Amino acid sequence: xxxxxxxxxxxxxxxxxxxxxxxxxxxxxxxxxxxxxxxxxxxxxxxxxxxxxxxxxxxxxxxxxxxxxxxxxxxxxxxxxxxxxxxxxxxxxxxxxxxxxxxxxxxxxxxxxxxxxxxxxxxxxxxxxxxxx
Length: 133
Description:
The protein is an alpha+beta fold. The chain has four helices and five strands, in the order βαααβββαβ. The chain has a five-stranded mixed sheet, sandwiched between helices. Strand 4, helix 4 (about 100-115) and strand 5 form a beta-alpha-beta unit. It is globular, with a radius of gyration of 15 Å. The model has no long low-confidence stretch (mean pLDDT about 85).
C-alpha cells in the first residue's frame, strides 16, 4: 500500500477538490437511474457556493498520496450557529486508491469533528445507484 496523508484545507482552498468532485458527479450521472438530469446540470461553482453559503462551519479534508496528488476528499458541514445537525456532504476517493480504507478514515474524522463541534445528529446521504458506498 502507498503512503497517504490526510490534510485539512481552509474554506478558501476548496477549489483544490474540484477535479475529484467532477469525477464524483460523473459517477453519479452514470449510476443514477432517476436523477440524470440533476447531475447533467450540476456544476462546481454552484455546488461550491451552496456549500460555502449554507454553512456556519465546514471541514474539508483531502487525502494526498506520496507524490502530493490529491486522491480523495471529504466535506462536512454544520448549518446554522446553534445547529445540532451535522452532515457529511460529499466524499470521494479516486478509483485507483479505493480498498485501502481511506474513505472509512475520512468518515471517521468527519464524525469525530461533528461530535466535537456539538452536533447531536450526523447524516450522510448516498446518491441513488451508489448504495455500494
